[in-house]
Amino acid sequence: MAAVVFQVSATVTEEETTDTPASQKREARLRQFRELHFKRNEARKLNHQEVVEEDKRLKLPSNWEAKKARLEWELTEDQKKKECADRGEDYDRVKLLEITADDAERWERKKKKKNPDTGFAGYAEAQFRQYQRLTKQIRPDLEGYERQREECGEDFYPTSNSLIHGTHVPTKEGIDRMVEDVEKQIEKRAKYSRRRAYNDDADIDYINERNAKFNKKAERFYGKYTAEIKQNLERGTAV
Q1: How far is the C-alpha of 95 from the C-alpha of 81, rounded, in Å?
Q2: Residues 48-82: pLDDT tens digits?
Q3: Radius of gyration over every alpha carbon of the chain, rounded to an integer in angstroms
Q4: What pLDDT was estimated at residue 5?
Q5: By the 8 A CB rule, do 165 and 155 touch?
Q6: Can you tell me the distance from the alpha carbon of 43 to that of 37, in angstroms, rounded to the nearest whole number?
Q7: What does the alpha-carbon distance between residue 75 and residue 70 come to, in Å, rounded to a whole number?
Q8: Alpha-carbon torsion, ordered 209, 212, 213, 215, to 10 deg
Q9: CA distance 227 to 238
Q10: End-to-end CA distance of the chain
Q11: Is the torsion defined by CA of 171, 175, 181, 184 positive or negative?
């Protein structure tokens, strides 16, 4: 009986010895399979994110990178101006200290090439100049932009199926800036469109408002040449 027990124990020990390497190999393969499965899922997520980002980049304007670089440069300039103001320094003077003579000469040549404002030539040209002047004054809020993009998610880049239109509520600071800008425009426009005072003692030599303006222009350009003829006509001594 003791011999049988010893033989069975020896057999079990041999089986455990032979099964241990096989089980370890199986576990190693399962672990490797799980790692490959995890890497495949991670690669799938990264590919999806890249596809979404590429689709967003394709929907952006062609000059988006240049505009973004311009905005970042303007923000940097504003920060430098604030730092100079806090130190009590003149920003223009500090900026000139960092500019070389070659850069200054090149910028001067660029300024001379620009066409000056020729005044009022038409409503379309005046509107275009006003649009350029207003767009140069815009200071975008990149923090608010990023915050709004996070809140909207995929709807931040709307498509034909998006329902984001009409849901945006402007901030109080934005409304105040708009009101201030509109008041400045009204004040500036009032200086150029004010009505000239009417002189009751002036001679009436016109039949309507349009004819009065024409006579003023003619008097301004040709008055010195026709003064004597006008006086002779008034006295009745004209030949």
Answers
A1: 10
A2: 888 888 877 777 777 777 888 888 888 888 888 88
A3: 41
A4: 43
A5: no
A6: 10
A7: 9
A8: 160
A9: 12
A10: 163
A11: negative
Question: Nearest to residue 93, comparing CAs of 80, 106, 105, 103?
Answer: 80
DSSP letter, residue 157? S
CA distance 150 to 77: 27
DSSP 139: -
For 30-42, give one letter per residue: b (16+ CB within 10 A) or e: eeeeeeeeeeeee
Upper half-sphere CA count for residue 103 (Cβ side, 13 Å): 6
The per-residue pLDDT for range 217-233, each reduced to its tens digit, is: 998 889 888 888 888 88
Token pair of 235, please? Answer: 């006295």
Provide mean pLDDT across the span 206-215: 88
The CA distance from 235 to 144, in Å, is: 75
How does DSSP classify residue 30? Answer: H
Distance CA 160, CA 38 (A): 36
What's the pLDDT at 118?
62
Which residue is listed with tokens 């062609």?
A: 62
The letter for the amino acid at 111 is K
Per residue in 124-134, pLDDT tens?
Answer: 888 888 888 88
Confidence (pLDDT) at 183: 92
- Can you give the length of the chain in residues? 239
Mean pLDDT of 17-37: 80
Amino acid, res. 19:
D
- As a whole number of angstroms, the distance between CA 86 and CA 94 comes to 13
Task: Give me 7's structure tokens.
Answer: 């033989």
Question: Lowest-pLDDT range, 13-17, 54-58, 179-183?
Answer: 13-17
Taking the whole predicted model, whether its pTM rises above 0.85 is answered as: no
Rounded Cα distance between 204 and 211, Å, is: 11
